[in-house]
Amino acid sequence: MQSQNTLLEQDQRHVWHPYSAIQADTPIYPVKSAQGAHITLMDGRVLIDGMSSWWSAIHGYNHPVLNQAIAAQLHDMAHIMFGGLTHQPAVDLALQLVKITPEPLQTVFFADSGSVAVEVAMKMAIQYWHAKQQPNKQKLLTIRNGYHGDTFGAMSVSDPDNGMHSLFSNTLTKQLFAEAPNCTFNQPCTVEDIAPLENQLKANHTQIAAVILEPIVQGAGGMRFYSPEYLKQVRALCSKYNVLLILDEIATGFGRTGKLFACEHANIAPDILCVGKALTGGYMTLAATLATQEIADAIRDGEPGLFMHGPTFMANPLACATALASLKLLLDSPWQATVSNIERMLTTELQVCQQYSHVKDVRVLGAIGVIELHQPVDLKTLQPKFVEAGVWVRPFNKLIYLMPPFIISTEALNMLIGAVCKVVAELEP
Question: Angle at Cα 223 formed by Cα 221 and Cα 228, nearest 5°?
Fold first, then answer.
């Protein structure tokens, strides 16, 4: 095995990391192994994981059930093309997803990643209206502060002004945006909250194929929590103006907000649903786009009579088998009580940070804890502070947030929250 220094040197010279540059001076930490809610670095330090590998590893790392699912599937086949062929893990996973998602969703398109699932959803919406002899319905409407992925279609419906994708603004398809609601999770939705989106629908519904939203929690666009009442009204408006509703549950799905899917907080169902991230328990990349039977039938019966998308690694058997095992682990566990306990601890223990002058807000929903600062963080100096404190937390912009694995122990969660609060306190001017 290479030395840590050699590994880092080669990494810096040749490897791109997310939202980084080659030979960047942002610290990179080589990982030797990961187990449960802990990450072991090559230098021997052990970190408590507060990120679930970008919100996906809900069962932690190196889980024996998921390891066994991969090993068992590997004996049959690691991969097989999905064009003209099928296999048991894909069919079983589709049936399970249909069973646990809102009732109108009956069909499943497997994708490689969350961004691709969003691309698929957007294409489904546009192709649906083309099949319904309404080809002018090509635009997507969304709210500001959203994030739906890094591919071009997904970028076009992400917040246009937050800087993440501004470089490509002249290249992206111009979509329609409404101001995001100000009603927080526990507040009623006012006329002023819903009016911007309603006005866009009223004025442009003949050209709008779908509204796309992250339900209840806007993730990488700002970790904002909004009222379920708002989502309920959006559903009603989409029905009123004959526009499809796409819900992006890639970050919120599979229990993270305290409901299996965040749309359950509003007791509504979308026409198209995107899932990913925690689908395989963070083991490998897999996502899915679910649609109603009506949408599937319209695309089948329209021109050209098929849906125009098909990834090479669609419905990868290893990923599907792992996803099935991950869903069984989740559904057979007392996950509601587990998430509720994490929520209680985050709410109680993060609140101390509210006293600091540099902290704008502290908010918690399910297994999501957010500390919003008044000023953006300096990742180069802040990341090492968390590592020195024995935790893995990856802040961005003005946000320091936690999304721990559901299997984290009370002791480890206490240590994680304590370390975060200590670092935040030290940031006070």
Answer: 110
